Amino acid sequence: MTAMAAMTRNVGDPLTSLGNPIQTPVMKLTGKVAVITGASMGIGESIARLFLSEGAKVVLCSRDLARTEAARQRIGGDDFVAMSVACDVSKRDQVDALVQAAVTRFGRIDIWVNNAGFGLNDAVATLDIAQFRQMFDTNFFGAVECMQAVIPVMRKQGSGDIVNISSVSGHISTPYASAYSATKFALNAIGWGARMELKRHNINVLTVCPGYIATDFVKNMQKGSHAQRVGASVKYAVGVDMVAHATLRGILKRKRQIAVPWFYWVVIKLYENFPALLELVIRRSLRSTKQLLAEKEKSAASK
User: Under a CB-based contact definition with an 8 Å cutoff, are residues 218 and 119 in contact?
Assistant: First the structure.
């Protein structure tokens, strides 16, 4: 073959360049459809962005449709691969409508991420019981309702992955955040049990337990008259993208549970074996939530 003929073949072949194969990136979620609740910001938005970049079609939802649509536009998903839906997960009729909307648009649901939730920062003695019940309705019962709504779809398909975004607080309860921890302890328990129930249907349930994450969670949480936080909750927070990538790895490996960052397993085991020691450290590190947020804003302004 002449040199001219070889060059002609290379120019005409999109998979070669001067005789060397061009490596096409392999997308890990090609053909998959993922629904992410609480996707208008933070962890949910980051998961949606990553899944979209890995070839999945994504359905973003939150209670506020305008904010959810803004998140869809930020992640770059057009109408062919992404959609926004308004859904309050504490309302079963809205959850059922979300499932129907996803199946109608994309034909299936392969991954469901329960990320919707909020926090309550107050002492047990003074916390508002109505707010506490509302938090359980969203953080826990909302996730269970979503699982009940999507499991029949996944059973019919013969496979699926359910992801519950829990927290290290589902293993370690801290002062002035114990009500929030209670919702996550419950979410952990339901996820572990459901995983055993659904394994025969080829449906995996992954529990993701982030530690301190750099989001507006603390800023947006409901605060009572005794709002305090562990000082490290702002100082040592990591980015949401770390949670998204860890979640993807957990799905692909069909894990039971992951902690983000991984070293929180050390903290969890320390608490399980030496609770008094860790509780002493926690009590000594408590600070006013208002003061912590002010310091965070001051630090961000100086950068």
Answer: yes
Active site residues: 180
| 28-302: in CATH 3.30.450.20 | no
Amino acid at 42: G
Residue 215 token pair: 């989001």
- Name the E strands within the chain: 16-17, 20-21, 33-37, 57-62, 82-86, 111-114, 120-121, 160-165, 203-210, 222-223, 228-230, 257-260, 286-288
Q: Scan for tokens 């804003």, then name that residue.
A: 297
Q: At 97, which amino acid appears?
A: A
The answer to whether the pTM exceeds 0.90 is no
CA–CA distances in Å: residue 235 to residues 39, 95, 214, 227, 260: 25, 36, 9, 17, 16
Contact 124, 179 (CB under 8 A): yes
Pairing mode, strands 82-86 and 57-62: parallel
The answer to whether residues 204 and 158 touch, using CB atoms and an 8 Å cutoff, is no
pLDDT digits 0-9 by tens, 66-121: 999 999 999 998 889 999 999 999 999 999 999 999 999 999 999 999 999 999 98
